[in-house]
Amino acid sequence: MNVTELARRIKVSPNEMRDLFPRLGYDIGRKAIKVDDAVAHKIIEMVEQDSSIIERYRREQQPEEEEIEAVSTETKTELRVPQVITVRDFAGLVQKPVTTVIQELMKNGILANLNERIDYETASIIAEDFGYAPVPQDTDRTDQAQQGGATDEKPTGSTPRPPVVVVMGHVDHGKTKLLDTIRKANVIDSESGGITQHIGAYQAERNGKLITFIDTPGHQAFTAMRSRGARVADIAILVVAADDGLKPQTEEAIQIIQSAKVPFVVAINKIDKPEADPEKVLNQLAQKNLLPESWGGKIMTVNVSAKSGEGIEALLDSVLLVAEVEQDHIMADPDQPAVGTVIESHVDKGEGPVATILVRTGTLRRGDAVQVGTVVGKIRAMKNHLGKEITEAPPSTPVKLLGLKGSPEVGDTLHIADDETSLKKIQKQLKHKERAYRDTQTWQQVQTNGTEEEGDQAKEVHVVLKADTLGSQEAIIQSLETIVAKDVRVSIVKKGLGNISDVDILEAESVGARVYGFNVKINQNAEELAQERGVPVRTDTIIYNLIDDVQEQVNALVTYDKVKVELGRAKVLAIFRTERKTMIIGALITKGKAVTQSFATVMRNDTKVTTVTVTELKQGKETVTEIPAGTECGISLKGSSNIVKDDILEFYTEELEK
What we know:
- This protein is α+β, with helices and mostly antiparallel strands and 658 residues long.
- The protein is built from 20 helices and 33 strands.
- Strand 17 and strand 18 form a beta hairpin.
- It is extended, with a radius of gyration of 35 Å.
- 38% of the residues are buried.
- About 9% of the residues have low confidence.
């Protein structure tokens, strides 16, 4: 008898059953799967005669279990886990290599790469496996900030600061041109295809008051960057083209703004165009439960033309009006140590790691020792949005920082360290995170193992990605994660900033990857090596061109299923000619239709005889491609010649379906 069956019959678990064997006088190992039937029946009799055996055993175990539980609870370290976190960041959080975390996820039936996001429930289970006591990160914002994560907490203080305004909306609705008109600087000409490729922060002045603007990309590839833009903003400007109305990215921007609980003004742009219809936009807003002020609602709308400048001053006045209403929430303490958010990050050839920071509260000064996410450094230079060097940056000021030891992530929080000594201590604490971030090579091996385990069930498009900035890189990665196919997935085997090098080509060759570069170039040696090794390389300055190319690679690997499409039936009336593997017959189409180049299953007495191909159809003396039901015709067939009078032909075609 199986141990499991025996345990079921005496109403205990299999593990309890194995513990009971020696107590009942039987020397049966803990790895036993079966026991002798005679022994099993004796055990059942013993338990039936004395049911207290099991009760005594469980009472003995209870204190032991409680003691173990208490000890384990005492030794577990509390770990604050966010609601959503990437596998890579989670590995840094639990101080484990990425490969170890991925293997643990696999054990729990989750196949994820280092860039994929896992929710709190999943992360907490894995954290418990590693000996931690997970708690939601939101329970302690201060500790969250100390760990370098982004925080949605609004800066507090008693001193008014310039409002931070985020500009959002659908692609090509004129957001960058609007800002271009506001700050009198031609930014849009530098953007590929007229589409903002990464986030930027600028300042403008109106009636002696400063306003900080954040320009967020409008293409759907930049959802993550737009979301982060909304989190650091006090006010939002939603740009809607008067000739185009609300679009998918417009509705998505509205959701982001509302979830961030940010007051907003709607700028109805392009009113100078002949086909402009501002009333249509107002109607669409009303349908989204956003009733405009002119219709008796609370949503402020302003008609503008970024091209001619019409309505721009009215828009700025509306922003300042909203800022006055929200003044209690637009405060900061300039005397405190600075706290800021990373708006953009990249590696400059001459300046090294560069980060654009929006100061949230406090004053940032040149020479400050700072921690930005998992990166530390001492500020050796600061530049404002005009490129001029400054020595200090008060709240709501966007500045470009030089002096960091590496490139932080977009959305990371900047904190001031006490001194360089404490900075070194922080750097030592964060060393395990940096190690996890660079664990790409080991990940490739794990990824290969995972693919082998799956066999032929999943194919992969391997990608080596190089980009100019972290913001662009993040946007591309998030877009690639949305590419879904039945049996094909995209795997980013390596990512980095800067031009494509020989190392990138060699690593791509080792895993059969394609190399993609966004806003970067390929070194001459790397280009020659790629041609020699046959490694595909593509560089582009428009992000969705790269996304489309990856989508094409995925589509090329998708397997297609053959689907049988029934066409009709016919009854064989006569056999006109029989040759080797060809026949000409006379038939009556009784249902549906017959079509040339279709297939036909030959049925005789409800039994399949063979399958043939229809090569030609004749109605009278005329050759046709299709014969409808109720028509007699001649049919040329290719295949078996085993067809007789009164057989039934069932016509069908085969189509490929993804």
